[in-house]
Structure prediction request, 717 residues.
Amino acid sequence: MPADIQPAYRQASQPIEARVADLLGRMTLEEKIDQLHQCGIGDTNPNNLAARADEFRATYGSFIIGGPAETVLATRNAFQRHAVADSRLGIPALFGADVIHGYRTITPIPLAQACSWNPELVRQGCALAAAEAKAHGIDWTFAPMVDHCVDPRWGRIAETFGESPFASAIFSAAAVRGFQGEAFGGPGSIAACLKHYVGYGASEGGRDYVYTEISSQTMWEMHLPAFEAGVRAGARTLMSAFNDLNGTPASANAYTLNEILRRRWGFAGPVVSDWNSVLQLIRQGFAADGAEAAAKALNAGVDIDMADGLYRQHIAAQVATGRVQLATVDEAVRRVLRLKFELGLFEHPYTEAGVLTAAAPGATPLALAEELAGGSIVLLKNHGALPLVASAKRIALLGPLASNGGALLGCWTQQGKAAETPSIADALKERLPPGATLRVEPGCSIHSAATDDLTPAITAARESDLVILCVGEDAGMSGENASRTTLKLAGRQEELVQAVAATGKPIVLVIISGRPIEIQAYVEKMNAIIAAWAGGSRAAAALADILLGRRNPSGRLAITWPRTTGQIPLYHNTRPRARPGDEGEYRDAPTTPLYEFAYGLSYTTFTYSALRLDRAEVKAGDTLIAEVTVANTGPREGCETVFWFIRDPAASITRPLQELKHFEQARLAPGASRVFRFEVVPRRDLSFPDADGRRILEPGAIILTAGRSSATFSVVP
Ligand code: NOJ
Prediction:
C-alpha cells in the first residue's frame, strides 16, 4: 500500500462495517481487551479518580468523566489526544457520564417527568441535556434508567418513569430519541444507555444492590417492556445491572443478555457493566475469583467492564485457556468500535469549546426546564386554598425546603448548581402580589437536629393568614444507595407539620421529594397538598406560578401514593385477589392508596362523556375505535390527560386489574370539549406475554376504561 493511502478504517467514505473489520484485523489481543476497559477520570464523582492522561494507557476504550464544568472539556481533550496521538492505531476514546435529568440545566427527576405525561417535552428535555453534555465533551450518557419499581423505599425510584410498564416504555423511547437526536452522531446527539438491565428495581425490601426475585411472567410483563421499547427506538448501548436475578446476576446473565436482548431483539450495540458489577459477581457468590467473574460476564454478553479492571487483568489468560473464545472478544470489540465510528469520533475526536446546539427551536434551556417542571407538579388536594386568594395577605412560608434551592435539583445533578437555583422563597418573593407579605421560617432541618427550634415558625403561622409549608427530602435522600425503611418525613418535619396545623391556619403543604411521602397522619388537616418532586433548575418558578394561579396544574401521578409504608408494594396494575369484600383487607388500615395512579387535580374541572365504541366485537386483524368526549366545565383553561386502561377479566394467564394502554393530553379552553380517541389494535394492545415472552391474543371480553367511563367488547376468533 502506498504510504499516502490511509488504511480503510481511517477512510470516512468506507462503510462502517468495513472500517470495523479492517481495524479489528490490525489489533493485538491486548489492544482489543483495552477497548473493553472503562475507568473514571475527573475529580468530582466520588467514584472517579483525579488523574493525568499520561498515567493511563492510551489504548483504553472509554472513560467516565466528571469534574467541574470548567475542566471537563480540557480533561476530555487531553485524554483524547493521548488516545489518538500516543497509541499505535489512534483509536479515539469514548467519554460517558450520568446525564440523567439535565447536564447544566437541570430538568425534573425522571419520576416527576413521567407525571407530566408529556413524552414530547421529555424528549426535548433529553435533547437539551444531550446538547449541553456534548458541548462539554460527553459522547455517551448512562441514561435513561428504565427500571420497573413498585417499592418507593428504594431511592432509585426517583430515577424511574413510574410504575406502568406501558408508560415507562413510551418515556424510554422518548428519552432515547431526545438524547440521540434524529441523526445519531450529529450535532447535539450523544449515545443513550438503557439501564439497569434488568430487574434492579425489584431490589428486596427497597434496599440497594441486593437480591431480586422476579417471576418470568413479571419479568416479561413489567421489567422488559421499557428496555425493548428503548432498543426499538434505537438506543445504542445498555448497562447490565447489579442485582442477583433469581440466582444468576444480571451482569453475567446469558438468558437476559445473549438470548433476549441480542438474539430475540437483535440488539447490536455494546453492553457496559455497572460500576464494579463484574467484580461483584464474586461477592454475590457467582464466581470464585476475578478470572471467573470476567469470563462469566463477557461470555454472558457484557462487553465493557466498568471500573473494576477485571477484563484487563484476566481476559487474555481466559482466551489462552479457552474459557473465553477469541470470537467473543472480537464481537465485543466490534460493538465498541462500531459505536465510535457511528459517533464520528475518528473524524472528530475532539470537542471544540463553545459548540452548543439549541435543543428545541425557540426554547431557551431554562424555559424548557420550567415547562417540564410545571407539567410535573401534581396537585393532590385542594379544599379551596389554591390558587392563593387575594385575601391571603400575610403568608408564612415555612419548612426546611422553603429556602433550599439545591434540594430542588434532586439526585444526579452533574453541572447543576445549588447556589444558583432559586428557592421557593426566592420565586415567591419575586411574584408576590402588591400588598402581600412573605415571612420565611425553616422551622426545623430536614434531618434530626437537637437544636431545631420550632417556635419561630409556629409564631409566624399564628401571625399569618395562610401557611405554605415546604417539607420533604434533600437531593441526597433519593437516587443510588438512598434506601429508607419509611416514607415518613425525616427529622422533626412531621412534628412541625402537626404543630403548624394546631394553629388552625389554612395550610398548603408542598412536598419536595424523590418518592411519595407518607402523610396520612396529617392529610386531613391540610387545605391543599402539592407533590412538587425535585423539579430541577426552574422548579421554584413553576411551583410559585401554580401557587399564585398563574399556571394551572396538570401533572398526574405516575406512581401510586400509599397511605402507609406498610402497604408497599401497592400499584395499580396488580392482579385481582381471590376473595371479595373485606376479605384480604388490612385489619389496621385501609388497603386502598391515598392517591391512585394517574390521579391529579386541576384548577378547572373536566367532564367525560360515556365511552363510545365503533363495534362490539373485534378480530385480531381489525382496529376498534374507542372515543370519549371530554369537556372543560370549569372556569379556566386546563390541560387534561386521558388514560385508557384495559382489563381482561378471564384469561389463560391472569391479567392485572388495570393495564394502561394509551394516554393523550390536550389543553382545553373553558367551555371547550374535545374527542379523545384510542385506536385499539388487538395484537398490540390486547395481547400479553407468557412466561417466555411469547405474545398471546385470546378471544373473550375486554373492559375498556377512560376516566370513569367504561365499555366492554369482545375479541373474537
Ligand atoms: C452506578 C450506578 O448504578 C449507575 O446508574 C451509574 O451509571 C454508574 N454508577 C456510573 O456512575
